[in-house]
Specification:
It contains nine helices and eleven strands. It has 284 residues and is an alpha/beta fold.
């Protein structure tokens, strides 16, 4: 008698056989085993305090101080993260012509590090910083060095123990009071991580590219997302409107469970790696 994992692997393989061209939509769960924290628990409940809002970052110097202080401590965990077997499996499926596009809600760039080339970074990328004035870009590591030079006190402060998603670190707000945030070296305006904060808008060209790929695909494969945020959930709704099959791989509840053609609860690393290799690998 097959185990539940074996049954779900068979279901995944049969799904991909019936739908040989899929678009993948990924969330924080696919990067969890790479050491990057997820936003929500298995029931889809938010795990942290209220996130920084886009308007707050634009309007408040104190909010920018808080963000960059926490980011100075939290960025190295994202910078040094390594892609896992689930990321690599999707890259292999792209090479095989099965996955036509990865739409990711993550900002860690682990899909690209794993070898995927057709990727829409729906919420941006944390490894880059942009100027709100002249639109110049700088590397996030350059910003890290500028923050360190402007704030030597940061290196003397103990790190908090709670790593949060997207390069954030739990810290008392009092530690950010004296943080000096470097301005753009080109025009002197405000620098912002090249990500979409909560309350911000996903650029229209990203949504257009994702919708075009979905229209040309046979199915949508959702991996590691609770889909609580509309920016990702919209593609599940569109898939169903277009009578596309929808497969969700997530051990917890998602906003689109009622829309799914098939829902699998085995960890995505196990399923995707086995789908590629044909065998189960320990410690995936």
């Amino acid at each position: 008698m097959m185990s539940n994992t074996e049954q779900e692997l068979q279901q995944l393989q049969e799904f991909l056989a019936r739908h040989p061209k899929v678009v993948a939509l990924t969330g924080a769960g696919i990067s969890a085993s790479s050491g990057i924290a997820t936003y929500r628990d298995a029931a889809g409940r938010w795990l942290y305090s209220t996130p920084i809002q886009h308007r707050e970052f634009l309007q408040s110097a104190a909010v920018r101080q808080r963000y960059w202080t926490r980011s100075w401590f939290g960025w190295p965990a994202v910078r040094d993260a390594r892609c896992n077997v689930a990321h690599r499996a999707l890259a292999t499926l792209e090479q095989q012509g099965v996955v036509s596009l990865v739409i990711t809600q993550n900002v860690d760039r682990l899909h690209q590090r794993a070898g995927s080339s057709a990727v829409v970074d729906l919420h941006g990328r944390l490894d880059r910083v942009r100027c709100l004035g002249c639109a110049a870009f700088i590397d996030r590591e350059v910003m890290q060095q500028r923050l360190a030079r402007a704030n030597p006190q940061l290196a003397t402060r103990p790190q908090a123990s709670a790593q949060r998603p997207d390069g954030d670190m739990a810290l008392p707000d009092t530690l950010a009071i004296d943080t000096q945030v470097p301005p753009c070296e080109v025009c002197g305006d405000v620098l912002m991580p090249d990500v979409v904060f909560f309350g911000g808008n996903v650029p229209a060209e990203r949504v257009l590219r994702a919708n075009e790929a979905l229209a040309a695909a046979d199915a949508l494969l959702v991996i590691g997302s609770s889909l609580q945020v509309y920016s990702g959930f919209r593609f599940c709704r569109r898939a169903r409107e277009q009578n596309k099959a929808l497969l969700i791989i997530n051990p917890g509840l998602t906003r689109a469970d009622a829309l799914a053609t098939l829902k699998l609860s085995t960890p995505c690393e196990t399923l995707l790696d086995a789908a590629i290799t044909g065998t189960f690998t320990a410690n995936t």
